[in-house]
């Protein structure tokens, strides 16, 4: 490998995409050389420069050339340990030298925003892919499908993008000096941060500063996007997640500024919350989720807010949809939240508090559609008991083979993010089913083989349940569709588990009792 050609290709790519100005070519080249510990460089001939320019012009995103540069650094002893973590840290450092400063990016963003809000976010999104902050190469490993359900088509994704930890990285963490800078992965101080073995490098991160309800917030994209233009909006202040009136002001204020995006929030309580409860933040983007497409099952009215169009969404979870004027939606959403926080219905197992601990909260989703503000409110409860120690309104234990993690806002909206282990596990099950069909001896042997395999035994009863109730005999040609369908059915059942008011006559009556007392 000629490292100088790879670096020149990266710089040429960056110049052609507006990340670097031609006048800064030498400056940025030297910064990249320093980052990999290389103290020499080549003067290229005209023919070589033309070949490099042609190569750079064919690059959509610079993942491959970055990987080559990092590989050279690894081979030449420039990494503390040759693990994926340290390779990623160097990858971020290299692109941090190439990207413009934050001030220039923000200036360009807001200048573009003046004539096109959509173009502003599109350009910023593309910059995040060009900078390799959004890991397009790893995200491409994910795969998924749509699944037809009584509530509309759900979206199923098998998540293969996030790499597993190397044992050497885990061992190295014991030698890391404890620090609280940045306090978490969502703090504004991550922008440009070098990272460490237990904290991802963010030297190629750039953010946009926002004003939401007279507070300072920041806007960035997720490095591992789950849908189109998956963004994160986080508070300038390191403070815990909190669903309150200000939360509704913030999410609706955002879609006022970016009406082509939605903005949503994870809940602020354990079990029903997201993975980071310590920093107030939202997730948004440009994607129409299944929940947004869902129809209204029953229209309802709230006293004093008769002008707000409201209804119960035809959805496996308990969701109210409000449409109308922004300020009125904020006021009504806050009234619903305060009522829900203290609402109990013993007949349905809903308790607002036990031993002084609060259990009720809400997932809000804000949109601007057809000239009106829209707010979906998913009612959540995080109570546990002996039968369901991980949560009463949580995936039940017999479904944990497919999904046992917390159900966050992305899944509430109908996009399943399922563990990568399912790819190999389902492939093994498909092979066993195919063999059984060929032998024409039924599936008892399949169940025995699965029980004898530590990676598959958790799926045995699950598979048996669906095979025993299948309306048609399973064929070799239908195995893939069958497996996809039963995973989709399981996700739908998971969402139903999380609904506080079940889609039963008793549950529907309970939902209306709550609405009537708001």
**Percentage beta strand:** 15-25%
The main sheet orders its strands as 3-4-5-7-6-13-14-10-9-8
Helix content: 40-55%
Number of helices: 18
Uncertain regions: pLDDT < 50 for 5+ in a row?
none
Main pleated sheet: 10 strands, antiparallel
The total strand number stands at 15
Amino-to-carboxy terminus distance: 68 Å
Overall, the morphology is globular
Query: Oligomeric form of this entry?
Result: single chain
User: Helix/strand-derived class?
Assistant: alpha+beta
Mean pLDDT: 95
Write down the Rg.
26 Å
Protein described:
The structure is a single chain. By secondary structure, the protein is α+β, with helices and mostly antiparallel strands. The protein contains 18 helices and 15 strands. A 10-stranded antiparallel β-sheet has the order 3-4-5-7-6-13-14-10-9-8. It has a 3-stranded mixed β-sheet with strand order 1-2-15. Strand 9 and strand 10 (319-324) form a beta hairpin. Helix 2 runs antiparallel to helix 5 and helix 4 packs across helix 5. The N and C termini lie far apart (68 Å).
Task: Describe, in short, the structure shown.
This protein is an alpha+beta fold.
Detail the topology: elements first, then pairings.
Elements: H1 3-16, H2 25-35, H3 46-57, H4 63-75, H5 84-98, H6 102-113, H7 117-130, H8 136-139, E1 143-149, E2 152-159, H9 167-172, E3 208-212, E4 215-221, E5 231-235, H10 245-257, E6 262-264, E7 281-285, H11 290-293, E8 296-300, E9 309-313, E10 319-324, H12 326-341, E11 353-354, E12 357-358, E13 360-369, E14 372-381, H13 409-412, E15 415-419, H14 421-439, H15 444-451, H16 460-469, H17 479-498, H18 505-517
Parallel strand pairs: 2-15
Antiparallel strand pairs: 1-2, 3-4, 4-5, 5-7, 6-7, 6-13, 8-9, 9-10, 10-14, 11-12, 13-14
């Amino acid at each position: 490998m000629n490292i100088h050609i790879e670096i020149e290709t990266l710089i040429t790519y960056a110049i052609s995409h507006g990340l670097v100005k031609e006048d800064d070519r030498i400056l940025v080249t030297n910064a990249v050389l320093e980052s990999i510990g290389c103290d020499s460089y080549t003067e290229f001939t005209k023919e070589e420069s033309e070949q490099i320019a042609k190569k750079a012009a064919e690059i959509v995103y610079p993942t491959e050339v970055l990987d080559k540069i990092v590989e050279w650094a690894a081979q030449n002893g420039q990494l503390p340990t040759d693990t994926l973590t340290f390779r990623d840290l160097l990858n971020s450092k290299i692109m941090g030298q190439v990207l413009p400063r934050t001030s220039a990016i923000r200036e360009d963003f807001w200048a573009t925003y003046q004539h096109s809000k959509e173009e502003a976010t599109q350009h910023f999104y593309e910059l995040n892919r060009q900078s390799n902050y959004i890991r397009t190469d790893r995200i491409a490993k994910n795969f998924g499908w749509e699944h037809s359900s009584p509530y509309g088509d759900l979206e199923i994704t098998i998540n293969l993008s996030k790499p597993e930890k190397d044992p050497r990285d885990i061992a190295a963490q014991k030698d890391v000096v404890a620090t609280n800078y940045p306090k978490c992965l969502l703090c504004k101080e991550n922008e440009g941060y070098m990272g460490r073995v237990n904290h991802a490098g963010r030297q190629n991160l750039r953010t946009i500063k926002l004003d939401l309800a007279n507070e300072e917030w920041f806007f960035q994209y997720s490095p591992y996007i789950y849908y189109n233009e998956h963004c994160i909006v986080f508070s300038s202040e390191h403070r815990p997640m909190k669903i309150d009136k200000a939360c509704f002001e913030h999410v609706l204020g955002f879609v006022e500024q970016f009406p082509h995006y939605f903005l949503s929030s994870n809940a602020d309580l354990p079990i029903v919350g997201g993975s980071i409860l310590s920093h107030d933040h939202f997730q948004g983007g440009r994607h129409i989720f299944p929940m947004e497409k869902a129809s209204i099952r029953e229209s309802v009215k709230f006293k004093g807010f008769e002008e707000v169009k409201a209804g119960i969404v035809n959805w496996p979870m308990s969701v109210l949809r409000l449409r109308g004027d922004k300020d009125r939606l904020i006021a009504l959403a806050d009234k619903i939240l305060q009522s829900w926080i203290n609402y109990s219905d013993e007949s349905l197992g809903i308790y607002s508090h036990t031993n002084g601990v609060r259990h009720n909260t809400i997932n809000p989703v804000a949109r601007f559609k057809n000239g009106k503000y829209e707010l979906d409110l998913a009612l959540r409860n995080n109570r546990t008991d002996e039968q369901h120690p991980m949560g009463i309104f949580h995936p039940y234990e017999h479904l944990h083979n497919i999904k046992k993690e917390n159900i966050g806002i992305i899944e509430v909206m109908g996009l399943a993010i399922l563990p990568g282990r399912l790819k190999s596990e389902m492939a093994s099950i498909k092979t066993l089913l195919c063999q059984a069909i060929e032998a024409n001896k039924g599936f008892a042997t399949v169940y025995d083989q699965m029980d004898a395999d530590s990676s598959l035994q958790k799926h045995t009863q699950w598979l048996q349940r669906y095979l025993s109730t299948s309306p048609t005999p399973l064929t070799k040609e239908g195995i893939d569709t069958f497996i996809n369908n039963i995973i989709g059915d399981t996700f739908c059942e998971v969402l139903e588990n999380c609904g506080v008011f079940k889609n039963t006559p008793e549950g529907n009556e309970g939902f209306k009792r709550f609405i009537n007392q708001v």
